[in-house]
Design goal:
Layout: E1 3-4, H1 14-21, E2 31-34, E3 37-40, H2 45-65, E4 68-71, E5 77-79, E6 82-84, E7 88-92, E8 111-115, H3 121-136, E9 140-145, E10 150-154, E11 161-163, E12 168-170, E13 179-181, H4 182-185
Parallel strand pairs: 8-9
Antiparallel strand pairs: 1-3, 2-3, 4-7, 5-6, 7-8, 9-10, 10-11, 12-13
């Protein structure tokens, strides 16, 4: 998950973060702004692989139908006044015909995928904030927990669902017809 890199004593605003994130020396860094703090998302090949499997399935479903945009871990979004870089995201063309070409996309995604690996106390604390903000923005969140081999589904106005190895992940009313077996997400 993310690690805190902001060490100033003063509180940072979203405008401060936007300026900081666009500095040339931060061009190669994947940054998030969560609960008033800057976090850098570390590189993790296994989490990236798990996210990529979901990304590929979404691309295979979304692209031929012309439904919208699927982004990977470098795609950042503005979510409830914060800045997130979900491992995978989908936003419909109906909501946003073209993606932003710099900075963070101005609209929250319709679907966000967060891969919590390795899961730590710090990652879980940040995820609590992100879950609340994704839901407030109307985003369907798939929280992937590789260590437990489960996917938690958070949908606005609905109770959380925990999917296990024998279940299928689906797009609900956000992406009707999309389905992916949970076992395929954790394929070795």
């Amino acid at each position: 998950m993310a690690i805190n890199i902001w060490t100033e004593q003063t509180a940072m605003t979203v405008a401060d973060f936007d300026h900081y994130a666009l500095l040339p020396e931060n061009g190669e860094r994947l940054l998030e702004f969560i609960a008033g703090e800057i976090s850098e998302v570390p590189s993790n090949p296994y989490a990236s692989k798990v996210g990529s499997l979901i990304l590929a399935a979404l691309l295979w479903f979304v692209t031929p139908r012309g439904l919208g945009h699927v982004t990977g871990e470098a795609g950042g979004y503005m979510v409830s006044g914060e800045r997130y870089a979900p491992d995978v995201a989908y936003i419909s063309k109906a909501r946003q015909p073209e993606l932003a070409t710099e900075g963070y996309n101005p609209n929250a995604p319709d679907i966000a995928v967060e891969v919590d690996f390795p899961s730590t106390y710090a990652s879980q604390q940040k995820l609590r904030v992100k879950i609340a903000n994704y839901l407030a923005a109307g985003t369907l969140l798939w929280l992937v927990r590789p260590e437990a081999k489960t996917i938690e589904v958070y949908a606005p106005g609905k109770p959380v669902r925990v999917l296990t190895f024998h279940d299928a992940l689906d797009g609900e009313d956000v992406l009707p017809g999309f389905s992916m077996a949970v076992k395929d997400v954790f394929a070795s």
